[in-house]
Automatic annotation (TrEMBL):
<dbReference type="InterPro" id="IPR002938">
    <property type="entry name" value="FAD-bd"/>
</dbReference>
<dbReference type="InterPro" id="IPR036188">
    <property type="entry name" value="FAD/NAD-bd_sf"/>
</dbReference>
<dbReference type="GO" id="GO:0071949">
    <property type="term" value="F:FAD binding"/>
</dbReference>
<feature type="domain" description="FAD-binding">
    <location>
        <begin position="25"/>
        <end position="342"/>
    </location>
</feature>
<dbReference type="GO" id="GO:0016709">
    <property type="term" value="F:oxidoreductase activity, acting on paired donors, with incorporation or reduction of molecular oxygen, NAD(P)H as one donor, and incorporation of one atom of oxygen"/>
</dbReference>
<protein>
    <recommendedName>
        <fullName>FAD-binding domain-containing protein</fullName>
    </recommendedName>
</protein>
<feature type="region of interest" description="Disordered">
    <location>
        <begin position="389"/>
        <end position="414"/>
    </location>
</feature>
<dbReference type="Pfam" id="PF01494">
    <property type="entry name" value="FAD_binding_3"/>
</dbReference>
<feature type="compositionally biased region" description="Basic and acidic residues">
    <location>
        <begin position="401"/>
        <end position="414"/>
    </location>
</feature>
<dbReference type="InterPro" id="IPR050641">
    <property type="entry name" value="RIFMO-like"/>
</dbReference>
<keyword id="KW-0285">Flavoprotein</keyword>
<keyword id="KW-0274">FAD</keyword>
Length: 414
């Protein structure tokens, strides 16, 4: 708790006149904010972590934890907890016109975690929440960051969603992990350039009767789009229960396209969304640092969204420990940029919405996937192993070379 005036029940004595010097502050207790708190606590730090929601989200959202995330959580013991709940996905099968046209297998990675771990984001978040609770870090819920003109100076305005009690906080740094619509990002006016697709993508999590192997991801290339299928696991499956599948596609009704599978129950979650590829121009402004969806957005092709954000959190915590936060933009922006650009390219092929790309995708891509180097690029992109573990050695790692950073700004927080 901070130094604000509180009654014994924890409520504020002067709810509209409250100024506190806070410990470091994390805005947003999604997977990225919680991962940052978990990593920081291993470095002996106890940040404040606040979230405007009364309850954690129950939506499955990101369905796969990649080998890089398993690596990063390994020392904390979180990886073992995730492994105990999830199921191994050994590869991806690509189908067209009722035939298998290509397969890639994670065993080729030659890594100690040669698989993707299928686990719903809600379950991953539960593990992180329990880890924080065990380490004495309480998520302060229903506390919302509101318009904060001096955020870049570390001054955050927080409002309790129910009571409307407000609190002005001064923190040594603020990690903005407040998601795609980040108010922190807007408060410090950092540009978030990129593009958004017109055509909505739709997903359903639904039990299916199917011959598709449940230990693989499946991509169906259609004449005018694509379908993606992956089992949804939560770690709470009961024996004999039908497998829940995520069916995702760039159609208004992906299920209507799925001729070889039969729904055998109600859809558990249905959502329609527009895909964007965006990256902040600066990974920090003054004392505000961005991580996760607040910093970058891209399509779920490649399963990087949550995983890339967790890597941001890891790098951030490492730099805090080393007292080198001034290197955060330099360390993180080139990596995030390379990945957002690569996933934009991959998504352009997979969605198959232009004639030329569709031809390349349908006829060339399956053949190219027989080349080791192409398979390796795809596997490394999906697994998160397309660059070394950041900051693992004392000297900075070289950023990926294929895309040039748009900004070479250094030491932005000076
Ligand atoms: C429909 C859908 C499907 C998806 N499918 C996939 C997938 O298949 N694979 C994949 O990798 N990714 C997927 N994603 C993306 C993935 O869910 C995100 O990348 C991931 O949640 C990012 O985590 P985060 O912690 O950065 O942000 P979030 O999970 O968005 O968490 C942000 C948190 O900040 C809180 N917050 C926001 N504003 C404030 C404020 N002003 N004050 C206080 N708290 C605030 C929110 O309540 C929330 O808890 C999907 C997302 C959606 C919506």
């Amino acid at each position: 708790m901070n130094s604000c005036f509180h009654r014994e029940d924890g409520s504020h004595l002067f709810p509209n006149l409250c100024m506190t010097h806070s410990p470091p502050l994390i805005i947003g207790a999604g997977p990225v904010g919680m991962a940052a708190a978990a990593f920081l606590s291993r470095h002996g730090m106890t940040p404040r972590i606040v979230d405007k929601r009364a309850e954690p989200s129950k939506n499955s959202k990101a369905l796969a934890v990649n080998p890089r995330t398993l690596e990063l959580f390994e020392a904390s013991g979180i990886t073992d907890k995730l492994l105990a709940l999830g199921r191994k996905i050994h590869g991806t099968t690509i189908h067209r016109n009722g035939r298998i046209v290509a397969e890639v297998n994670f065993e080729e990675l030659e890594h100690r975690f040669p698989f993707m771990l299928a686990l719903s984001q809600a379950a991953t978040e539960r593990v992180l929440r329990e880890d924080l609770a065990e380490r004495g870090i309480e998520i302060e819920r229903q506390l919302e960051l509101v318009d904060s003109p001096k955020l870049a100076e570390g001054k955050a305005e927080l409002v309790h969603v129910e009571t409307q009690a407000n609190e002005s906080v001064t923190a040594p740094w603020i990690l903005a992990s407040d998601g795609a619509h980040s108010l922190a990002r807007k408060s410090v006016h950092v540009p978030f350039p990129g593009d958004t697709y017109d055509r909505a993508w739709v997903l359903d999590d639904i039990p299916l009767a199917t011959d598709f192997a449940p230990d693989r991801a499946h991509i169906k290339l259609q004449d005018d789009g694509f379908l993606f299928l992956l089992p949804v696991f939560t770690g709470e499956e009961k024996p004999g229960e039908p497998t829940l599948w995520r069916v995702l596609g760039n159609y208004p009704e992906p299920l209507a396209q799925l001729t070889e599978c039969t729904p055998i129950g109600e859809s558990q979650w249905n959502s329609s969304f527009h895909i964007a590829h965006r990256l902040v121009e600066a990974m920090n402004v003054g004392k505000v640092y961005f991580a996760g969806d607040a910093a970058h957005l891209h399509s779920p092709v490649g399963a990087r969204g949550m995983n890339l954000g967790i890597e941001d959190a890891w790098v951030f915590a490492e730099l805090v420990k080393r007292n080198e936060l001034s290197l955060y933009h330099q360390q993180r922006w080139p990596v995030d940029n390379a990945i957002v650009q690569r996933i934009r390219t991959m998504t352009g092929f997979v969605k198959g919405e232009s004639f030329i790309k569709r031809m390349l995708r349908n006829f060339l891509a399956p053949k190219m996937l027989h080349w080791k180097s192409v398979r390796e690029t795809m596997l490394k992109t999906v697994s998160g192993l397309d660059h070394p573990v950041p900051l693992f050695s004392t000297e900075s790692e070289e950023p990926p070379t294929e895309e040039k950073p748009r900004s070479r700004r250094r030491d932005r927080d000076r």
